């Protein structure tokens, strides 16, 4: 019996020793460096955030708002600690640029797009020599936060003196703005570092931490005055090696309910449903709820609107609102400007019997940002022609109002955006066209492109002409353009025709959907049109292109024209005329034209302005079979024109840019 007891005791002691020197489950720390005015941060951020969400069980996230490349109010509130963090630990951030991230200090460093979920999973599978517990609590006055961190060395080796640093960061789990605080459009910012504790240098573990031993660190700090939302206050802690920069362990303490006396008002916004796109008067109904524990009666609530990112005059509710009570307030007769209008609201001030009080929770008093289209009442008369030459690359024309479906991207592109050496306008005859990505949206998703009002009262046999470059992704791809019109400013719509599938494509064979985006060569365009004769004689008409993804490739549009008669634009339609080359383009003095014809014929040459008026005539010329070189003097003011070449059997045009 004694021998068996001795064996059992020895086994228990051995198991205890193994347990004492086991390894801990790791939480991976991902530190991101970003900025509210960084375009790539906004572009790559959603996919990066999704990766982190998918691995939330294994990952702790900490984001630093940098001072570059542009304005960022979160950085301005604590610039020094952010710069200290990257200068002392990640000096590559300024030179490599943002968005930049580090995984556990030195296990991945670089652009956020290149960090994979598998890397996070692999790192989380590596056990840690440290166990860590973290907790925080707000004081009853909600003016300070108490933080407690305990680290335990569960490895078999001591951590040497001065080898590691404990870092603690006060964070706001979510910061949400009514309008984007920078220039990249982002309004929501998760896991933002707001204050390092006690500072950006952290707390060096000056004493050795032997195997199996623990050490606890306690801090109490005042809550910084610049905190947006007390209900979102959390804490992140991590231990980082001084020399290698490897992070051994990380933990997060999530936001806690507030204690004691505080003031919090929530707002639920219900904007009115507009009757039409021409309606420029707007209103909103706001349900205000007093969620305060403070007993002072709320007497006044200021509500601040934002229109296209700019503050508008404040509206003020006045009355008596006790804790737990609700009231409804309506703001009416909001006048909207023409165009695309972004509108949102937020609570600005709360006043009680004893004066102005701080709203501890800003997230629950912000509205969504509502995107509204306001069409001018004045109608442009057909004929109407326009292209995209005067529109900045990457933007959308102001005279086309977009309602983009999920996954759609569209913008004006040139050869730099397409990554090619030839011009990206229709048939390579101008610099720019409108790019529409049909590869990214799910099949069946529609986006609308709405034109300002048009007047067809003096038009007979109205048509819409355009040039298009588009390839199918598969033989069965069914991308489509549905041209619709409305005579009641968008309240109801009627289809004037649909083009889809192979009918829409300008190239015969599908383009590999797994390859790069289809970027058209100069001979991969075509001219097409919609018949709009049912609009003849109508005065105020809205027209929209409803473009639907059907598992397709990219689409390019150019040279829009609302008019009557034969096509004013397009690739050669004249019989036996194989090619037309115009040079130089831009032209300042003499215009050269190279024609390759399969037969002898007589052609007429004219120059038209963008309204279709003839401004120069070169008369008729005899064209021989084969190559023909012609030259005509140009004496016109600077601008875009069309060279019109006509014969008894057709018309062809080319853009010319006079400088």
Keywords:
six-stranded antiparallel β-sheet, 659 residues, single chain, mainly beta
Give a short summary of the structure:
11% of the residues lie in helices and 44% in strands. Strands 15, 16, 17, 19, 20 and 21 form a 6-stranded antiparallel sheet that branches. Strands 23, 25, 26, 29, 32 and 34 form a 6-stranded antiparallel sheet that branches. Strands 7, 8, 9, 11 and 12 form a 5-stranded antiparallel sheet that branches. Strand 5 and strand 6 form a beta hairpin.
Can you tell me about this structure?
With 659 residues, this protein is mainly beta. Helix content is 11%, strand content 44%. The chain is built from 8 helices and 41 strands. The strands form 10 sheets. Strands 15, 16, 17, 19, 20 and 21 form a 6-stranded antiparallel β-sheet that branches. Strands 23, 25, 26, 29, 32 and 34 form a 6-stranded antiparallel β-sheet that branches. Strands 7, 8, 9, 11 and 12 form a 5-stranded antiparallel β-sheet that branches. Strand 11 and strand 12 form a beta hairpin. The longest helix has 19 residues. The N terminus is likely disordered.
